[in-house]
Amino acid sequence: MTVAQRELAVRIKALALSLGFDLVGIAPAVASPNRDRLRAWLDRGWAGEMSYLLERFEERTDPARYLEGAASVICVAMNYCFPQGEAPPQQAPAKVARYARGDDYHELIKPRLYAIADWIRDQAPGTRTRCGVDTAPILEREHAQRAGIGWIGKNTCLIHPQVGSWLLLGQVITTLELPPDEPRTDHCGACRRCIDACPTQAIVAPWELDATRCISYLTIEHAGPIPPDLQEKMGDWLFGCDVCQEVCPFNAKAPTGGQPALRSRFPGGTLDAAEVSHWKEAEYRRTLKGSAMKRVKLPVLRRNAQIVLANAKLSKHTE
Questions:
Q1: Model's pTM, two decimal places?
Q2: In the prediction, which pLDDT does 298 show?
Q3: Catalytic position from the list 134, 181, 242, 272
């Protein structure tokens, strides 16, 4: 690498940090060495209804198919760990995953990625870029591990040794060749807390997730009826699930995030399942305006709320 390329990399990282990202690293834009493993995972049916993972498989597993001439992937991460506060009195508190408690992170991250991409093109005319959060066909955790941001834990979440796994990821793929960072090595060791704690046993083995059993998948991606044997195991989760992250030792002392927009808009990180189960369209739109929770349509949220209510009643009867 030339001195100029190294200087550009340093300046790109400084820009990313100045824009509010907590971590930044650079990975080479290489094809995934896990392509066959991903294909086998899809063939098992473990992606459930997430057909989009298969539809753009070639782009997803090779950055050069997503952006011709791709040379580098600039990976960033933003910490969304915030104290949840006290929940108000509720008939049946229904939990929301931490990442969705504040404003929609897509709208927070995308403009900052575009700012990095614009700066790169200004500094290196003729350079091409493409940006992505989690809706683009990019294996974001794999690139982030290669960029030194963290390692992929046994629960398949990306983990940083000091920041933990409460991380929102973004990428700028570019044709500009930049010096890559050292990949992050695994530090999970013999720990299996995430595997043992999963309420639905969705983590069938280290680094092996059956998404069709995952509470996050069931409450967000799965539109139809939820199998009866999994409903009780959903407990009080309305949207997403944080169990495997809550038990992770690397999250025990996770620092508080620095972006106020990611603070919980729901006191205690919960909504009242009794209220949600009777929401009309107007209440849904008003409460979730500017929230990532709007990815789930009202009928699915009401379905989830009804399951939380049923589980709350069952819990009272067994106390």
A1: 0.95
A2: 98
A3: 134
